[in-house]
Amino acid sequence: MSTAPVLELRGIDKSFGPVQVLHDVAFSVYPGEVTALVGDNGAGKSTLVKCIGGIHPFDSGEYYFEGRQVSVGGPRDAAALGVEIVYQDLALCDNLDIVQNMFLGRERKRGLVLDEDTMEEMAAKTLVGLSVRTVKSLRQHVSSLSGGQRQTVAIAKAVLWNSKVVILDEPTAALGVAQTAQVLELVRRLADKGLAVVLISHNMNDVFAVSDRIAALYLGRMAAQVKTSDVTHSQIVELITAGRSGELGLQNGKEATA
Fold it and tell me: Which residue intervals define the domain ABC transporter in the entry (predicted)?
């Protein structure tokens, strides 16, 4: 595990009109690790992720990537750094096949025509590299895939572009037990390949199964960022619901970590 974060946010504030959603948030993500981002509904998880992805500009704070301060003015800037986000709706087109979805908006061309052979080869190489064996054909329409297979395609699409940070928004939501296990294995493999993975989840069993660190948001504040091995299930639940658990968490409005 690396001691230096690949992505680090410091002092992030974000308001929408009179409502302040994020308060002085610090957040660090490390290569080769899964960092679980947890919090109750309305805690600010989605806003924080959209700030990382360049969708929402933050009001104040600093954004560091690989040790240098950067300015992210939009999703293209985030993607250029190597930040990819897989949202809960997956953003896949049912009427297109797997290869077409993986290259949607980033198609490879040979002259004036699409370079189908290269795209198929790159898609296959990515899936093999992630040890994905549940997809029968790269030319299957996404409409024919199961929920777990769709999630796999969306994740493979995110890592196709030499990404360094992959953020997954509730990747096991609405999946069965077997499909959840497959997706969690894939999440772990991403980290084992050296990527920094952020897992947003309400499922504490999933969080403790695959994460190396846990970052708990409470009412727009980072209550704690801790190693998963240093905390218990009940401590994380307390951080999510009350912002503190004993000496861990927000003490007089300030963050404390284990």
Answer: 7-244
Residue 139 exposure: Cα atoms within 13 Å on the Cβ side? 4
- Nearest 5°: the CA angle 161, 188, 22 is 75
Average pLDDT over residues 18-39: 97
- Rounded Cα distance between 150 and 83, Å, is 20
pLDDT at 258: 44
Whole-model pTM: value is 0.90
Domains of the chain: 1-82+163-258 (3.40.50.300), 95-162 (no CATH)
End-to-end CA distance of the chain: 18
Per-residue model confidence as pLDDT tens digits over 125-136: 999 888 888 888
User: How far is it, in rounded angstroms, from Cα 78 to Cα 11?
Assistant: 19
